[in-house]
Amino acid sequence: MKGSHRVIVESKKVKYDFVLKRNITILTGDSGSGKTVLIDLIRDYNRYGTDSGVFLSCDCECKTINNEDWERQIEETSGNIIFIDEGNRFLISKRFAELVKQSDNYFVLATREKLPTLSYSINEIYGFRESEKFREAKQKYNEIYHLYGEISENNPVNPEYVITEDSNSGYEFFEHLCTEKGIKCASA
């Protein structure tokens, strides 16, 4: 699966509207910010359809996975967007990372935990905040926003210091690059 996919999930009380651009998207936020509500709405829609009171719009199937038989579900699913809520212990496992890497699905992971076994873009980490779009209405609109901002030619990053995680090849690469740019570099 490639490209971007717009997902709209809506109930009488809350609405989510966002675009996925890569195979792994991280949703983070404080407790009560709406991560689990989003996944519960998708689960309800898959279980009860329109009788759930949930509206779901996407160009591909959206599904949820939990601890039960998660490996088989991922292996047997293709071309879907898979939503997984925090609290599923398999999220940090090497086996999960292997399955994600081999899969053609997109994964939306709602978690506050670090996921060192997965390689995902910093541009695909989003937080939740309540939007003012429905301020006067009773519906709550949860807006998803870039947690770390966008880096582009129009919005460059000019650090004074660069700190690398390792002291081997990663450090050597950044030390060489930083020396050319006149930036101080150190390993952690």
UniProtKB/TrEMBL annotation:
Stored Gene3D superfamilies: P-loop containing nucleotide triphosphate hydrolases
InterPro entries referenced in this protein's UniProt entry, alphabetically: P-loop_NTPase
Listed name of the protein: Uncharacterized protein
